[in-house]
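Hi V.,

Quick status before I head out on leave. The structure for the redesign project is tokenized and pasted below; the design run finished overnight.
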């Protein structure tokens, strides 16, 4: 194709795509049920409020280029329908904040699925050969844009039609392993953005922190690597099991299907896809391991104080008598000993992951919760320069348990 033909196709593409998206949006909203029918601007309010745990009204008005008064009028219907809640900031009662409700999230998800359904219905009407050519062409365009368009500007509003990408964290790990090295980020519920250090999940043992090295020297016997990610710890322990007898069979567990696929492709021998909540009730996992590792501030996966108690109870159940758990956590804000949960999600290449809670646990809070869960801290918490600390937990005996097992505390 000559240069003139290329320019014409590009002009047609740039002209027609916005028209198609506008028509698609109108088509979908015309079909929406009357109870929850709302304008495109109101739909955008739902999209934006779903991106953060809460918004100040003034910040949301600025993002939408509206006056606070105009935004208030626009949101009245959403609040009346129970899709948005409005209240006052606990830190400053003069500040009005808004949040999307669970009902609002459900309606938003349904609208997004509907948009994709409309597109799918258009494509389904095409002849098979044209449909195949279109899908291939769209893939080519997507790859072109990925090479030439940078990551969405931090803080930029995501398109209203964008669906949450399931297991985005695991997908990012697998893409990194396959050679796609692009910036990925963690967004907090308050909107703050930080770089997701994907390379750390693939770090060789020579790059392990002093804290990680000190903890892993304690590993003995059959070992469970919980929240294994890309398998860096599991691979190291497998290497140790070949070099010396102190480490036995290694099992790597992660809830992410893509992370598990990544570990298998990296050569981890035994990979299990499971959530720690499910392992707690699995009778085959009871008293099975001599060591459980949970590195990378892994206690944060508990998500809440009750979750931390359940996680530590699950660890105790899976440990053999005299077994050890080698755990790490982030202490969180200075000046508080209470566990603090932070709402996070992964963002990468214009895709958004599901929100999840990550728990910061101070050493005193860990000690207290561990004792309630039947675990004892036998090594004083070790800290690194990044605010992460580690501890060695031992399974504490129940009455008569040591006599039955014929075991004794290790020195």
């Amino acid at each position: 194709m000559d240069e003139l033909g290329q320019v014409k196709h590009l002009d047609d593409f740039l002209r027609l795509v916005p028209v198609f998206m506008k028509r698609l949006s109108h088509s979908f909203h015309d079909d929406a049920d009357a109870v929850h029918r709302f304008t495109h601007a109101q739909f955008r309010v739902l999209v934006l409020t779903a991106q953060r745990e809460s918004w100040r009204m003034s910040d949301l008005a600025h993002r939408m280029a509206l006056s606070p008064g105009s935004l208030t009028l626009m949101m009245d219907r959403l609040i009346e329908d129970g899709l948005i809640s409005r209240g006052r900031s606990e830190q400053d009662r003069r500040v009005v904040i808004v949040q999307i409700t669970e009902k609002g999230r459900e309606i938003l998800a349904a609208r997004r699925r509907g948009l994709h359904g409309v597109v799918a219905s258009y494509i389904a009407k095409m002849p098979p050969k044209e449909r195949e050519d279109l899908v291939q062409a769209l893939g080519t365009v997507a790859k072109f844009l990925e090479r030439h368009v940078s990551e969405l500007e931090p803080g930029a509003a995501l398109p209203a039609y964008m669906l949450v990408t399931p297991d985005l964290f695991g997908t990012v790990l697998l893409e990194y392993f396959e050679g796609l090295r692009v910036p990925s980020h963690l967004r907090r519920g308050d909107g703050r953005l930080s770089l997701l250090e994907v390379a750390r999940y693939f770090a060789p043992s020579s790059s392990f922190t002093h804290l990680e090295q000190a903890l892993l020297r304690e590993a003995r016997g059959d070992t469970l690597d919980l929240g294994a990610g890309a398998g860096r710890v599991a691979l190291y322990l497998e290497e140790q099991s070949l070099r010396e007898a102190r480490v036995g069979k290694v099992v790597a567990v992660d809830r992410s299907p893509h992370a598990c696929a990544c570990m298998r492709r990296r050569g981890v021998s035994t990979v299990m896809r499971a959530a720690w909540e499910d392992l707690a009730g699995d009778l085959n996992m009871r008293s099975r391991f001599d060591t459980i590792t949970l590195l990378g501030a892994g206690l944060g996966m508990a998500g809440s104080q009750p979750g931390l108690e359940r996680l530590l109870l699950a660890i105790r159940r899976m440990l053999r008598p005299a077994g050890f758990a080698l755990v790490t956590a982030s202490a969180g804000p200075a000046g508080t000993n209470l566990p603090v949960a932070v709402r996070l999600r992964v963002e990468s290449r214009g895709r958004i992951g599901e929100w999840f809670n990550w728990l910061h646990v101070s050493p005193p809070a860990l000690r207290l919760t561990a004792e309630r869960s039947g675990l004892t801290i036998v090594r004083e918490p070790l800290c690194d320069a990044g605010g992460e600390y580690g501890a060695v937990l031992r399974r504490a005996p129940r009455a008569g348990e040591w006599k039955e097992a014929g075991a004794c505390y290790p020195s």
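Above is the designed sequence. The first strand starts at residue 55 and ends at 56.

G. will cover questions while I'm gone.

Best,
W.
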